[in-house]
Amino acid sequence: MAFSESILSEQCLEQARGLVSSIENRDEDAAFAHLREISRINETKMFQEIGRLTRELHDTLVGFGIETEISDLAAHDIPDARERLTHVINVTDQAAHKTLTAVEEAIPVCRELEESASKIESQWKRFISRDLSADEFRELSREIGGHLEVSAEHYTKIKAYLNDILMAQDFQDITGQIIRRVIGLVQDVEDKLVGLIKISGSLDDEGNKLERKPAEKVLEGPQVPGKETATALKSQDEVDDLLSSLGF
Amino acid sequence: MKILIVDDFSTMRRIIKNLLRDLGFNNTSEADDGNTALPMLQAGDFDFLVTDWNMPGMEGIDLLKAVRADEKLANLPVLLVTAEAKKEQIVEAAQAGVNGYVVKPFNAATLKEKIEKIFERIEASQ
User: Fold this and answer.
1) Pairing of strands B78-82, B48-51
2) β-strand partners of B103
3) Does B42 lie at the interface with A, CB-CB under 8 angstroms?
4) Is B113 near chain A, with CB under 8 Å?
């Protein structure tokens, strides 16, 4: 080891002899001066050793291609994942609001139908038990007519709200695909960290080649606002135009 | 008309199933990727295939190619409903013989329009 070599060097021995004679001569200043010189020799050697280890680690990282991969992760993949996850929050937020709006708007429509039906029902019961006067019956007929007219309209509205709720669920597919990608990235980071640990733990011996990451998948998944691929089309209209240019 | 809906997300399958029901198509079946869809197509008398692209196992584009390569299924109309919006991919799908391409997220009107267009074309060519 470099450290023991330094303590066993001629230079060190000379300082040690000096230290012994200074102590024998009761010369405190000289004794400390010799001690400091011995420490300095050791420290110099130690820093040289740390420098050598750092260089070796750096060279090994470069050799394994890990250094560039890690800087790629830090510079590109992690911010990319952050933006993708932010997009997930936005998409789920929109879906939740779309659903809530549809429910909030559907509830009063249902309530109106419910009230009108129960009003008619109580009058209808009186009619069945022959409790209704002719005028009241005419009033009831009018109410039934009105109720039927409003119901058709209201049921169409409710169906539209239900359809909005149905369509709002498409966020699960979109966000699921985005989250899967981020999980892939987390896995990548984990693999690289494990690789780093393996390398730093086996600097001198095994030079096992680390597994390289599999070839990039071609599929992009959902486009994330602000992160669109250059060749990605922005809307169904653009897709239609492209297809019609291809003879569709 | 019997329709097969292929998507790895069950929520998306349900959405498409409901939209198709709204359009008057009640006879639908579901599969979660190409590997499960292909044997269903080969065994059943499906009239229409709606498939996602990006799925684990067999992807939609490979399912489309397998359908076109299968003598019995070669003329089955296929609609891709996918989040993949890259030009290269749309061109690839067109070359593989897709009948329609809908980009997610989509709405009921778009799906209806594409399906109607596909069947108009088929009728016109017959």
Assistant:
1) parallel
2) B82
3) no
4) no
